[in-house]
Amino acid sequence: LLQKLPPQNFDTLQFLLLHLNRVTWFEVDNLMTASNLGAVISPSMIWVHPATPSCSSSSFLSDAHLMSKAVELLIKNAFEVFNIDRAEDWRVFFQNYPDIEEPPAVDPEIEAHIGESEGAFFRLFNFLIAQEHSFQTPVQLNW
Fold this sequence. Notes:
Layout: H1 7-24, H2 27-30, H3 34-45, E1 46-48, H4 57-76, H5 78-81, H6 86-96, H7 108-130, E2 139-141
Antiparallel strand pairs: 1-2
Helix pairs in contact: 3-4
């Protein structure tokens, strides 16, 4: 799906998701986890069409949760989605911004658990793409 985006949209989405992933590096201080960022940014990335008489508020909330979760997963997996070396990006980031203190490294056991979830992420992402029109409320992906 991402390959179908016009180049400028692809570049913008990549820049945004990588930036939001970097924001999560400092979540201990800023409290902006991928989940929180997904909840905040998903309404701007995925718009819901105006409700029709057949749409209920419960279906809207369910769809909003799915959209938030999809954006959360994109943020969490931005480096994998765009095939960017996370360690190199980390090194370059802190080299370019020497006044910013590096947050503590993530525990290797946690990193291993995150790696295990990548397969689940890609299965969910592919499912969402395949089911693009299955939302109870019509949605517009604004990528």
